[in-house]
Amino acid sequence: TSREDGLNDVQEIIKTEKAYPERRLRGVLEELSQGCSVFNDCKHLHSPNLNSFSQFLSLANKDQSQSGRTKLDKERLKLCLSEVEAIGQQAKTMRSQVKKSTVRDKLKLAQNFLSKLRFLAEEPQHSVPDVFIWMISNGKRIAYARVPSKDILYSSIYEEKGKDCGKVKTIFLRIPGKKGFGPAGWTVQSKIEIYLWLGLSRQRKDYLSGLPNGFEENKLSRGPGLPASPPISLTYMMKQIFQLRVHMYQARSLFAADSTGLSDPFARVFFSSQSQVTEVLAETLCPTWDQLLVFENVELFGEASELRDDPPIIVIELYDQDTVGKADFMGRTFAKPVVKMADEHYGPPRFPPQLEYYQIYRGNCTAGEMLAAFELLQIGPNGKADLPPIDGPTDIDRGPILPVPLGIRPVLSKYRIEVLFWGLRDLKRVNLAQVDRPRVDIECAGKGVQSALISNYRKNPNFSTLVKWFEVDLPENELLHPPLNIRVVDCRAFGRYTLVGSHAVTTLRKFIYRGADKQANNWSTTVCDDDFFFLSEEIIVVSMDSEPSFKKVETVVKLDCVSDDDKDGKGKKKKRKKGDEMEEEELDESMLDWWSKYFASIETLTEVTNIKPDDSPVKGTKKGKGKKDKKKPAVDPYEKKKPKLDELKVYPKELESDFGNFEDWLHSFNLYRGKAGDDDDQNVTDEDRIVGKFKGSLCMYKVSDDMPRDMNFDSNMGMFNNIPSNDPINVLVRIYVIRATDLHPADINGKADPYIAIKLGKTEIKDKENYISKQLNPLFGKSFDVEATFPMDSTLTVSIYDWDLVGTDDLIGETKIDLENRFYSKHRATCGITRAYAIHGYNVWRDPMKPTHILAKLCKDGKLDGPHYGPAGRVKVENRVFMAPTEIEDENGLKKQTDEHLALTVLNHWEEIPRAGCKLVPEHVETRPLLHPDKPGIEQGRIEMWVDMFPKDMTAPGPALDISPRKPKKFELRVIIWNTDEVVLEDDDIFTGEKSSDIFVRGWLKGQQEDKQDTDVHYHSITGEGNFNWRFIYPFDYLMAEEKIVISKKESMFAWDETEYKIPARLNLQVWDADHFSADDFLGAIELDLNRFPRGAKTPKQCTIEMVTNEGEMPMVSIFKQKRIKGWWPFVARNEDDEFELTGKVEAELHLLTGEEAEKSPVGEGRNEPEPLEKPNRPDVALLWFLIPFKAAKHLICDQYRWLTIKIVTALLLLAIFALFIYNMPGYMVKKMLGA
Fold first, then answer.
1. Per the record, where are the segments of Basic residues compositional bias (predicted)?
2. 20 to 30 A Cα–Cα from 933, which one of 345, 488, 846, 911?
3. Which residue has the higher pLDDT, 809 or 1056?
4. Nearest C-alpha neighbor of 400 from the set 293, 317, 320, 295
């Protein structure tokens, strides 16, 4: 589609470094968004901007009533419609975000859109079987091709027609069966040009409509009245004769097919029914064939105009020539020739054709690029006499091989290539023997130079002669420059040379010397070259923030949540009442340490990356959270204004990624050996082929008579005249490891027991004794000093191992750092430049060279004018003037004059200095990924660290910074539960029906549930009131900086050692109803974040549920500042609707003491000694259980059922009287009758 063509255009613009790729990408995205939105509107159905997929969706949507549609069809159509609409919206949004700096990232996203559209267009259920084409020889099936039926299905509606229906297509046949998979199946068995048409019988009249014109049909004669059958053959009356000229110039970055890591490539070109091959070039991945292949008398059928607009494709396959066996397939590419008909003029703009790069593919992977041009010339009635002559260069005599003609081959100029030979590193064994006497050979376009021989690689892997040069003819067009090949050979006994490894520098553009005017920093783009030397007269004043560095204020610091309170409890700012202003207090600098600076920097990084950690209240509703969020912006402007601690730079990735791998003048070239793999991820397979590194650099420039004299040319060193010596140098390397994050679990319990291992040269340190138990985010806070000698010990390996009680320790991951490049870099990565200069305190200057010395050395090395220190805190370097304070405080508080602040200000803005300026590495912490050799490319965690390096021949540095983790401080929290009120009444009295509760309060600190404490029970509260006067005591270890309680405990009875947990400081209070014969009933709870919780209400009436649900509006306090707080807090619970309801109130007093204070003034738990609390004033319940039955009877008889009781008693008396009467009547009557 046009989208694919557009994206390919953007890629080509970026590759050839043409102007405005972002404009083309915006156009493609605009077209895509219009195309996606248009299918909802049928009136735009025939818009030329639509791709066929959107048109198909429109037609399908319009035809909803069609019979035979399954549920899958309908649901899939819904999915396609919604997805395409979403893609349209995303493309529209992304169009406005495309800028020059982001064009590469947005191009990737646009390609994702394209692949998603392709996926949606794929039919999940094919109702028509595919077409198979078989090639059979001697009854054996030797090759086949499978053509999807949807691609050749005919429809009279253009949008519904298959993309290959009714077209002459080139199809490649492949090997059937298992042999067809993998590299063996990539070679083409046969190429056929075929015309396919699949349609209904009633559409048969259209089946020949797509064939090239100029043919006669040969049909079988059939009986009268029978439908005409398709012709058995076609005879073309129109035949065009052409000559094809294939200009094969060069290829680069080809597939390494031999065990040496090189190939012997040749190209085979197929066109129509002819094929030709180029010559074989031995042992190279970047061959320059410079060869013209002429295909004579190529017969093509059809009308001339059709052939001109759509010529057949040319297939170019690359092979590796082997002395034994068949040639190995290396890759394939396709091209279309530029066609010239006999009646056309051979001249601009189309002729002669320009050389172009064609991407070579091997399976699904890219396998290099080929530079070539193709022209198809029609032979007219006068024969070949009318064809343009082949003007080859006269100075090349290559026998029958024709070179590329003059008009097409690039225009060459003489270039000089200077090579800096620095050294070789990490060379692996070759044929089981160690490399001992290596040499580097450089070759470009047939010319080259050899380095000096390293006489003993193990003793000193650097070269004795640093710079050599050679001259070579190269194309003036920089995009057509051939690659430069670097080969390392080992000189062995009896004059044998063994190839160790090779590297192809595919693009030389970054090594071209542009001259001083272009190399200078872009600090004044309006200055012309002629004015360059008068520039020093123009003075540019850089205004700096002159806030004295010695006045420091603690900042808001938190690793995992944003808070309004300071970390070290030093009274940073307070909220007293709702309307009160926030206050700042100057801090005691002696309380600050390196971690204060680190945490402040972490917060800054978090703000910059807009990662706002979640700190929503546990007991908050959505409404409450919303109000809290609305409140935040009111505080933000203040937070931005407040002065901060001196910070360091926290890099979320490796330091190398921000400083171009420290390859400002010394480059590392990986050396490869062995056959390349065929994995999809080419980078992973290439890692295994690396056999070492060549360190050096290149500089190339045109050689001409009028070479500018300002070129810093030296007879021995050429352009490399400011580089240091490469003699061995002793260095003290100081490694600081702060922490590791997201480590890969190494134990069966899903955790790890990590410790640090350092390896540099022959020195190996394993800090096994200080492993951290069961942690995936361990805090190490360690520093290690290692002495090293460059260049022998140049690669530092920092590993994290998992400690195991039994067996060997497992490697979790490691990171490797090239110290040598850092040491010699102009970015000065030896010791980071701090933002402010101090001679004592947490921000003490740690480099043995002071800022003034560093600045003087940089100005001397860069041949700059300065530094000139002037009055009123000014310093001038070149034409830049910087301003800064000139006073510094010593440890006793005395102020004295110094130029260090001025020099440091210049160093922090060194990139603004003309010519020699570049960004200097600041004081920093870098975050490096941990990788495992057995799991390449998969991150096993990350490590935060930094490295300082100090040459041994200079002043010794001071002691290492103390970055050991802060020890948690011991605290004791005393909570007195005085009273409760309005507690919900849970129990019903069986006899009296009276509501009551047997109240008690439970409390614990989060993470210490096993240490929960309960008050005694206030029995039979019928008003919800309870009196306790009960004291809870909670000792805990607390980290001020992180606002976390530290708990160390064994995970199980079988655990070997204790595991450390860090948990937010939160107090949980609950109110319960005690039951004797069943489980206690939970009534309500409140959780108080000890750093930030609502101030307690003074009276029960003022205590409302708003204190929990609307925290953001309440005045907040911190127990670490207030120390002692008393008040009423609400108990809440969720009702059936999952909403909070008030279930009681508690009057409590919170008192925080340090461990020392708690020891001096001990108290007892509950109401025990020492300092016992008074007994509460409760109703007497001693005989409660005996009195309850009588009270119940009295209530029943006297109150509730009085009249009923009287009636029952009266009825019982009457009944008794009647019973006595019946009982006594017989005896009485007998007495009367007998007259007794």
1. 620-631
2. 488
3. 809
4. 293
